[in-house]
Amino acid sequence: MITASELNLVRQILADFPRLSQAELAHTICELLGWHRLNGKLKSPECVEWLRKLQGSQELPNLPPLRVTKPRGPQKVPTDGRSDAQPPLRGSLADYRPLRLQLVKDLANRRLFQQYIERYHPLGYRFPYGAQLRYLVRGRPPAPDVLACLLFTSAAWKMSPRDQWIGWSDGARRANLSLLVNNARFLILPWIEVPHLASHVLSLAARHLPGDWLAAYGVRPLLLETLVDRPYHGTCYRAANWICVGQTQGRGRMDRAHQAQGTRKDILLYPLETRWREALCQLPAPPPCHASIGEIP
Question: Is residue 61 scored above 90 in pLDDT?
Fold first, then answer.
């Protein structure tokens, strides 16, 4: 929640610096108001989204327009020969263990990851918003360079079957949503034909992700979620002990306005700790009393 004086400061910044880009405005506002993640980084992407909402608010008609510096819509992922299909690779899981989950940090591996997802995942690659971690899964020699890819992102804002299964209140969900992480993409490269590889990779990821997410964002997740599009059934997730708790309503992960229309998807969840439900359902301490205007994402 922000105060009236803080909101006036935001108005003043927008009025005084009309030539700044959205990112520059968001950085400035976050620095002045101290909007940081638990890992110390600025909450600039969330601030940009919040500014756009204020721009269209009937209560705030005098906000100056925000200058868009990037083209709207999906960005195309360029591809090259590094991600070309390879000859089929077969064998038992034991032939490739121990597997190694490589956290993608450098530009070369990030582009390779994007190419693999764009070319071989049914949903293609979409540049994720918010918190995110990418993994390339590698086997021991003489295995090929990459066996699989995993993308983890911020959890869906609200999903009724998930929220009912957790049992948390609306206030607890708002306070503790950062403790959920979404497995947005999982790809076994199509030329890899190794039985039980997918479920083994998911189990390995469940062990590695909490520490990596904590190091990146200052939060240790308690629950994983994923959405499975039909005609797929999430067989490898179920084999790795993920639990199907229902289906989405077909509006998309971040549809807060209840307007988007899409396909219904199975919701699968995986607890990461034994007392996860108790922690997720815990309400935060009440904030100090002050005049509030709006909510910060």
Answer: no
Nearest to 226 by CA among 242, 241, 210: 242
Terminal Cα-to-Cα distance of the chain (whole angstroms): 9
Residue 67 lies in a domain: no
pLDDT value at position 291? Answer: 46
Mean pLDDT of the chain: 86
Give bridge partners of residue 228 from the DSSP assignment.
266
**Does 167 reside within a domain?**
yes
Domain with 40, as residue range(s), is 4-55
Tokens representing residue 237 in the block: 């997730």
In a domain, 14, yes or no: yes
pTM: predicted TM-score of the whole model, two decimal places: 0.77
pLDDT digits (tens, 9 = 90+) for 196-242: 999 999 999 999 999 999 999 999 999 999 999 988 889 999 999 99
Q: What pLDDT is stored for residue 293 in this prediction? A: 47
Q: Residue 245 and residue 161: Cα distance in Å, rounded? A: 6
Given strand 243-247, what is the order of strands in its sheet? 100-103, 132-138, 148-154, 180-188, 223-229, 265-271, 243-247
Alpha-carbon distance of 45 to 130, in angstroms, equals: 7
The CATH number of the domain holding residue 203 is 3.40.630.30
Q: Is 109 left (phi over 0), alpha (psi -120 to 50) or beta?
A: alpha
- Same domain for 29 and 173? no
**Which are the contacts of 242, defined by CB distance < 8 A and separation ≥ 6?**
202, 224, 226, 234, 268, 269, 270
Tell whether 125 and 214 lie within a shared domain: yes
